[in-house]
Amino acid sequence: MIQLEGRPQLRAGCRLAPSGDVLLIPEGALRLHGPAARIVQSCDGTKTVPEIVAALFEEFPGADQAKVSKETSAFLNKLFERAAIEFV
Questions:
Q1: pLDDT at position 53, please?
Q2: Quick check: 49 and 76 in contact, CB under 8 A?
Q3: What CATH class has 8-87?
Q4: 3-class DSSP state for residue 62?
Q5: CB-CB neighbours of 28 under 10 Å
Q6: What pLDDT is attached to residue 3?
Q7: Looking at residues 28-47, what average pLDDT do you find?
Q8: pLDDT at 5
């Protein structure tokens, strides 16, 4: 489960492909749609989950903040379950 106070970062062996729309993980690859690439780029170990959500809301000011928060948390949880990110 994600840790809101933690700072997500990509695990060793995981990285964005040069195209920026695919996350390479040891078991394969995940195609990133919509703001998913921006979320993954934010997983650098310096930002908390609320800070990532706030940055997305700034970039997409017309979006519903509760929906952005819920979907970002769900996506990060999926990445955590796939062992693509860890919290520092």
A1: 94
A2: yes
A3: mainly alpha
A4: coil
A5: 9
A6: 74
A7: 95
A8: 83
